[in-house]
Amino acid sequence: MNEVQEAGGTVSGGSGPKPRAETVRLLGRDIPVVAADDGTLRAEDDERSPARRLRLFPPVLIHLIASGETTGKLPEMLGRAADMHAREAERRAMVLTSLLEPALILTMGLVVLMIVLAVLMPIMEINQLAR
After folding, report:
1. What confidence score (pLDDT) does residue 59 get?
2. Model's pTM, two decimal places?
């Protein structure tokens, strides 16, 4: 719960026997969570969990986190998710640059064409006047 409060969130909710339902307010949204016996907070485990409902994260990341929570290997799964998203960002950057390169070459070719025409047009007009 301290991590939530350090991140600028607030925790409010039940005072009954554990596990107790609480509400965490993060990013301007109320997210229902359940406090476990060890003092940790976990999101509801249904298909309408806050992460799925709010669509803040990609579905693959939500599945990796759920898998990590159930197997007890959450740090490993988060590392795997970070690697996956880093590769995806790198791939998108490569696609963008591969599309940008031909467009930049065409633009530079048009600029050079305009400069050449700007130099040759007066020369051709002078040649016409001389005849």
Report:
1. 81
2. 0.46
